[in-house]
Amino acid sequence: MKNFHPLTVKEIIRETPKAISIVFEIPQELKEVFHFDAGQYITIKKKFDGKEVRRSYSISSTPGSNNLKVSVKQVEGGLFSSYANNQLKEGEILEVFPPEGKFTYQAPSDGKSHDYAAFAAGSGITPILSILKSVLKKEQHSRFVLVYGNKTPQETIYFKELLEIQQEFPDRVFIEFVYSQAKDKDSFFGRIERSTVNFVLKNKFKGHHFEAVYLCGPEQMIDLVSEVLQENEVEKERIHFELFTSTETGEVDANLDGKTTITVMVDDEETTFEMDQKATILDAVLDKDLDAPYSCQGGICSSCIARITEGKAEMMKNQILTDEEIEEGLTLTCQAHPTTSTIKVDFDDV
User: Which of 28, 54, 143, 191 is 20 to 30 A from 329, alpha carbon to alpha carbon?
Assistant: First the structure.
């Protein structure tokens, strides 16, 4: 299984008053390990007062650019985000897990030009920027519509870079800025709402058939935009999303009063122990000091995915795995409770 690697912070870029970008130096021997697809993320690990904290950040640079860049927006009470924005220095070393994630772009093999769209809010622009630049690089005639919501232009991550891209590709890149606390004659005022999506689909870009639509931001925005897209006959299969927060809690219908004997495969080592079914598989594994992969522990990233090879488990919520992947035995271990007396879980076979 992949492991964390110490990477040197090569550059820190101040993007907004409350957001910075971190550029990592990737040594030659780790170039292949840190190869990524547009839209993927890395997980950073750091200890604060002896307590380990893991945070996932989407990569904004493009594959093949020899550049690994992520952006960190400071959030109230955020341990790592506050540290990164106020204390992190160039030359420091951070523990970084290699790229992963299913919110990705792959260029179609048909060689034709396509239209793409994306709706992002705040730091949700990070993976979208990588996807946007990858489309421009890999598809010479394809077009990209971006709807991007923020409070003000000053708080808009990559504002200058996006304007430069739009100026360089005026016939291929179309950006609609949305500001909730600033009025601009060339931008929407408010938030990304039903009327915003309908204007883009039914008026300004009427008749465009979008090969794919990428959504990244708060859960409420993603749910709304996805609903309106489908009302406008954009097939669900063409809508791809990634959450950075989730309000959904979920629950399991099964009776969880029993115990389960669980066998876990991590880093080619097998461990068997008894766990309470009220606990999630990931929590039980971590309580045994096994080095299973994880990051958000909230069911919105894909770091903790494992394969159930024997027995059954039920997830409290699932916003990532498809029905086919669940049928194949994959599960989000941070959301999964065992429901059989024995279960085998393989973190290596994913």
Answer: 54
